[in-house]
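Appendix C. Worked example: Two-component system response regulator TorR
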Amino acid sequence: MNDKHILVVEDEAITRAKLVGYFQHAGYRVSEAENKTQMMVVLENHHIDLVMLDINLPDEDGLMITRNLRSHSNIGIVLVTGRTDSIDKIIGLEMGADDYVTKPFELRELLVRVKNILWRISLTEQKSVIALEDEEDDDLFHFGQCSFDIPKRKLLKNNIPIKLTKAEYDILVAFVANPSRVLSRDRLLNLIEHRVDAPNDRTIDVLVRRLRHKIEDDPKDPQIFTTIHGEGYLFAADVT
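Step 2, the predicted output written as structure tokens:
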């Protein structure tokens, strides 16, 4: 993991120094920034694998930064904040964050979360390389107006590329592998690699809502990702 580069964006100097020192000791390359302006300079000049981002920055809200980063990048994003309101966690996930931790946090737990995210990123990159060398399309699926190439992590709707976060990709793979089958939230959490531990976890609802907005013709009247009240979700499209 010592080739991975982490960017710590935190305006509180003591917390920033603690995070930088801990992850450097764990063997990572670490850069730091105290606001969005400094963060953008680092991103423009270095390849960053994961951003550890404080929500309460002086020059821009971390949730907005998350949305902007996710709109053009698959970089790992961990939101770190002192806020305890669960709605912030839901919004953060909706914006495209991979994980969310609240202060005070256990550094060893944060390290495990970062390792898991970086591992998933590496796995996805390895699959992409293998897919480029493989001419077969056994893992190319079609449903509705979409085609989904699992090894290449490539989703097209009407031949237009649709960007997916790692969590969205994981849950879509789970749905495509289980068409016309009702999947409970717990079952979906077990099928996907992305997992956020939180009381009253609504991660699956957030991810399904995001997929509906990206794939459904009318997200308010979903025909592909249908809700089975009291049971879970059903992937209702015909998969070929």
